[in-house]
Amino acid sequence: MDPDGSNAVSREEAKAFFKGSFGKMSADAMFNEVDDDGSGAIDAEEFVRFWIHVRKNGYKEQDILDELDQLLEGGAWVDWKDGKDTANAATKHWPTRSLLCKLSQETWDKCIVLFETIDKDKSHTLNKEKAANHFKGKLGKISVDAMFNEIDINHHGQITCKEWMKFWVNVKSSGYKQQDILDELENLIAGEQWVDWKDGRSTA
């Protein structure tokens, strides 16, 4: 499922793996059961932890082996009776703003508006294709690369809601004023170029 060897499976990779008319349903079901931290990517540790959990819920080793063979052939994801729900993700997409958060509620909300402006299909993850559709013009690709270099620190090729908010909190912690951030968020919503924040992270 992880053809790019990033040590994490993204939703896009899962959808590409589960082909056929039920591909999206299988990908969603798998993420709802396995993506414990709601990060939008399943790393090797989470994946192995899930199967250990299935085994502890009374399934035989052979049952799991047979099902893994089915999955390797592109079979649909099954709903294991393991106390986890394939229908609803256990975690919310957006992290809750803490009481002591350095970002004001207004700035926090504006960060969400920018994310949702780029996230046209409302999947709660950003990839480079969506970003390229947002940052148009000659410098579009530079903006996309700069944004991903600063925010996608695990190089999964996607940005989750959690990573996004963590980034903006880090910008505020680096000494920027609320108004500076709000003004820049407005510019970015309008599709203007990504700026290199002096926040200890590199756009290069």
List the helices and strands and how they pair.
Elements: E1 8-10, H1 11-17, H2 23-34, E2 41-43, H3 44-56, H4 61-72, H5 105-118, E3 125-127, H6 128-134, H7 140-151, E4 158-160, H8 161-173, H9 178-189
Antiparallel strand pairs: 1-2, 3-4
Helix pairs in contact: 1-2, 5-8, 5-9, 6-7
What does this structure look like?
The protein is mainly alpha-helical and 204 residues long. It has two domains: 8-72; 105-189, EF-hand (Recoverin, domain 1, Orthogonal Bundle), CATH 1.10.238. 50% of the residues lie in helices and 6% in strands. The protein has nine helices and four strands. The chain has a two-stranded antiparallel sheet with strand order 1-2. Helix 5 (105-118) packs across helix 8. The longest helix is centred in the middle third of the chain and has 14 residues, at 105-118. It is elongated, with a radius of gyration of 19 Å. The relative contact order is 0.13. The model has no long low-confidence stretch (mean pLDDT 86).
